[in-house]
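Open question from group meeting: does this chain pack into something compact, or does most of it stay loose? Before anyone orders reagents, we agreed to write out a predicted structure and look at it together. Recording both the input and the output here so the notebook holds the full record.
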Amino acid sequence: MATVLARTGRHQQRYEDKLRLVSGCIPYRLIENHEDHSTDLEKSIEVLMISSPNRSDLVFPKGGWENDETVEEAACREALEEAGVKGILNEKPLGVWEFRSKSRQETCSLEGGCRGVMFALEVTEELESWPEKENHDRKWLSISEAFELCRYEWMRRALEAFLRVMEEEDRKLERREEVVEPDPTPVVVTDVVAECTIMSANFYKPSCGQHRGIRPISV
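Structure tokens returned:
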């Protein structure tokens, strides 16, 4: 397996309105809660957050969007580099938020301003080793735990948007899985059987499945 290296430097960094453009994602996985059999969606999802160097708070993987990649590719790359995960990216953004970089969060200066696009990423693979493993620990959390650990307002709003998207996807799935009511009209099996069994030696005997539009089932 080839070693993946994290990108460094900002020589390819995109900017807009003097803001650094950032792309990131909320990695998630579906879980089975054997103790709680409720249909509460929040209890069936965990999200992944990562630590930051020299800081105690947790964040979602994100980083600079560079000029040789799409915003979706940047989100997937940051998930791999910072959190060591791969998965299926929902290409519909959760939203766009403006904030300052971590080192400038507590100041009133416009320096370090960022405009970030966030996505939802369903994790399909967790790597044991990843480019920024030494700088980032990762932790799976319930939705409620993640809300408590979101230090900044934009992160909470992104998580709220993520939950709305998950709820909408769940409703779509339920609609697709709705059971179609069976036709109450009884099927007269004897007529079909008679057609298949009553014949003259001078006539070809058709397959039962060829009667009344019924196709034979291949086994």
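Observations to bring back to the group:
The mean pLDDT is 79.
The beta strands are 15-16, 19-30, 45-51, 58-59, 62-64, 85-100, 113-126, 138-142.
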